[in-house]
Write a structure and sequence with these properties.
319 residues, alpha/beta, Quinone Oxidoreductase, Chain A, domain 1, Rossmann fold, 2 domains, 7-stranded mixed beta sheet, 10 helices, 25% helix, binds NADP nicotinamide-adenine-dinucleotide phosphate
């Protein structure tokens, strides 16, 4: 099989595509023939080793997983003797932010990871694309009380996190304003968004409305820039640490003070987040935004593209 190796932190040029034997599952693993996976911002963060803090989770000197990839959708072709919850032939998908080595034609996945049987109505591409961004989006919402009384501004509605977030908030009945890339106004409206801003020149900062929460899903604003848009006691959450890691410090400081807060999302159990996402799928309330697709042999180009910060939702890697 071919697989994408990440021998060191660096640029997509440091990735190595190699032919290696198909791995053998151990007793608690399934061997999956992978038919779709994504190159996402977790993958690019691990591959580049940036921000530096990722090295505390993914390996200090070099990535601890020699093969890249965090999500997958495919079919089980072999299983270990103690696996009882899955059968050979089952179509499955899953995600683990620390890495599953799924940028390969086959991967052995431990059944203690988050793995779901793929509903027949979902394509492998859709299943793989429903994981990473949606997982982080769920843990933004988990930091605050989201209900139909809330007015929320989402910055970055065309990203993997922002596109999932927007659909989740609409499903919750919130009044949602989205700041997004030009050309996506109709997509946002079709999802049920109330107001859409083109991100150019940060015109949304002049909005007269006031929001209970601002979710910056691309880390392109700061708390201090957006503070005036928050209601009294409102909260700002960003997917990035911000200048001088200020979001981390502000999330510790602002809860001690009266007024507007900064919260920092802590993505935890993906079983919880992705079970929620599967329910949205079943109710027809979530459709992952798909960007372009690449062959596995061209995965370096997919990393280059994801690193531009310009992907629209999810970049798929085909078999
Ligand atoms: N905290 C974590 O654990 C974690 C995990 C994953 C990702 N992240 C971070 O979260 C961020 C989002 O990741 P993602 O995968 O959702 O993003 P993404 O898919 O890479 O998407 C970025 C999107 O934002 C749009 N955009 C660019 N500049 C913008 C601006 N000023 N205002 C609004 N939208 C803008 C881009 O559109 P154009 O093409 O038109 O520029 C693009 O569609 C990244 O910064 C990533 O590093 C954090």
């Amino acid at each position: 099989m071919i697989a994408c190796f990440q021998p060191k932190y660096g640029t997509p040029n440091d990735l190595v595509i190699k032919e290696v034997p198909i791995p053998e599952p151990n007793s608690s693993e399934i061997l999956v023939k992978i038919l779709a996976r994504t190159v996402n911002r977790t993958d690019t963060g691990v591959q580049s080793g940036k921000p530096f803090v990722v090295r505390f989770f993914f390996g200090f000197w070099h990535p601890s997983n020699e093969i890249s990839g965090t999500d997958f959708s495919g079919v089980i072709v072999k299983k270990g003797e103690s696996v009882t919850t899955f059968e050979v032939g089952d179509e499955v998908y899953g995600f683990y932010d620390i890495g599953l080595k799924t940028h390969a034609q086959y991967a052995c996945i431990d059944t203690k990871r988050t793995i779901f049987k793929k509903p027949a109505f979902l394509s492998h591409e859709m299943a793989a694309a429903s994981c990473e961004g949606a997982h982080y989006a769920y843990y933004f919402m988990d930091k605050v009380k989201v209900d139909p009384s809330k007015k929320i501004l989402v910055n970055g509605g065309t990203g993997a996190i922002g596109s999932a977030m927007t659909q989740m908030l609409v499903d919750k009945g919130c009044e949602v304003t989205v700041v997004c890339a030009p050309g996506y106004e109709e997509t946002m409206k079709s999802w049920g968004v109330n107001k859409v801003y083109n991100f150019a020149n940060k015109v949304f900062l002049k909005d007269e409305s006031r929001y209970h929460y601002i979710f910056d899903c691309v880390g392109k604003s700061t708390f201090f820039e957006c503070k005036h848009l928050l209601t009294k006691g409102g909260a700002y959450i960003s997917s990035e640490l911000g200048p001088w890691s200020q979001n981390l410090f502000l999330s510790l400081l602002t809860p001690l003070l009266p007024g507007k807060k900064v919260k920092f999302p802590l993505p935890l159990d993906s079983k919880k987040s992705l079970t929620y996402v599967q329910d949205l799928f079943v109710r027809g309330k979530f459709k992952p935004l798909l960007d372009r697709a690449y062959e596995l042999s061209n995965i370096k180009e997919a990393f280059e593209y994801a690193l531009t910060g310009q992907k629209k939702g999810n970049v798929i890697i085909k078999s």
